[in-house]
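[Automated response] Your request has been received and processed.

Submitted sequence:
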Amino acid sequence: MAYDLKQEEDVKEYIENLGVEYRFGCYKEKKPEVCHLLGDYLEAIKKDFDKAAKVFKSNCLDYKFGKSCLKIGNYCLVGRGKDKSDPNEALTYFEKGCELGEPTACLHAGMLLTATGPNVTIQRDIPKGYNYLKKSCDQNDSMACHYLSGMYISGVPKNVAEFNPHNPAKNKSIDYLIKPDMKQAFEFAKKACECGNMYGCANVSMMYKKGDGVEKNEAESKRYFQIATELQKAQETTKELKFQQGLDK
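Generated structure:
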């Protein structure tokens, strides 16, 4: 059937039929990809977060679909479809999604395990968190690479309370789980930039300018600054989220 999407009634019918197709593909044909789309549909079109959460959770656990593990993990983290936020439950789903090959799930697991602060409720585990971040970066997740670069720029102290960002000389005497290493920081920043992270490109530009972790090179500094600027402009024109983006690569 042809729809005239300029007509309101046709749009409504199209949307309803889309939901029917997704339900059939998920519940009858048992296709994980379609179940994920059904979750997206319930979330974005119907605004029924409780049902969307159930679909994402089932698709993660029963059909082992990594993107749905990421989704239900995010729901748990912000408390969507639940009474309140549950970071520990979120971590379980992120770890599951990472095991199933979803790089953003690896990123979120790594960030939760390495986070610090007064509101953090998850036991800090830098080695485990680092491995998740590295796995995500290896799969070209730009934010994971950028995050790893930052860890090497400042280092990761064993006791966070001992670290003083305003006193670098004092920080040299404290114990680190990951010691500051500008060469490693540069490599991860460069990888982040290559994967499209504008902050990574900006850091590479600054490192070339100062000679931090790499030999000074004014021409390369300018080149990476230009790349960062172009990425920033591109980001400003693509802020709207696309429906079905959960299946984009």
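Summary generated for your ticket: The chain has a mean pLDDT of 91. Residues 8 and 14 are 10 Å apart (CA to CA).
If you did not submit this request, please reply to this message.
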